[in-house]
Amino acid sequence: MLDAAQAVRHFEDAGFTHAVWIPDSYFGHWESALASSAKLRLIRPCREGEAIAIAGGLMLGGAKPLVIIQCTGLFEAGDALRNIVHDLKLPLKLIVGIRSYTAHLAGKTADNCPTFTEPLLRAWHMPFSLLAGTTDASFATRIRDLIDNAGPYALLLGE
Known about the structure:
Layout: H1 4-13, E1 18-21, H2 31-35, E2 41-43, H3 48-60, E3 65-70, H4 71-76, H5 78-87, E4 93-98, H6 101-105, H7 113-123, E5 128-132, H8 136-148, E6 153-158
Parallel strand pairs: 1-2, 1-3, 3-4, 4-6, 5-6
Helix pairs in contact: 1-8, 3-5
């Protein structure tokens, strides 16, 4: 599991101004590092659709937010994603945890979240990359990919 302080440092170095974050079992350990960042403002929305809408408003105001959610929340937030990315044409940046990904690859879970995450992003025409087996160096590279991509982009983290 990626060290929370290192993850936040990469977000800061990438120039993100806000972390719009809904904690879950995987990202929950990032809370203290996100909350103590001097460069990122932590926003805790109630639902994932709200997280994406808040990020849209921040982008319209000139900020560079990063939305951090789990795949089940991504499923819930589809209409907000469609609106922000395709109607408003904003460069939404997401980190999405894919619950049970490692167990899914090993055939050791009935959880269907890994089955649907990538196809849904393709259906929404949302560019993405997948990172499993996270190391600090691989995570840093993928965070740079988020920034280097001028349009919307999602980084999927296999949990």
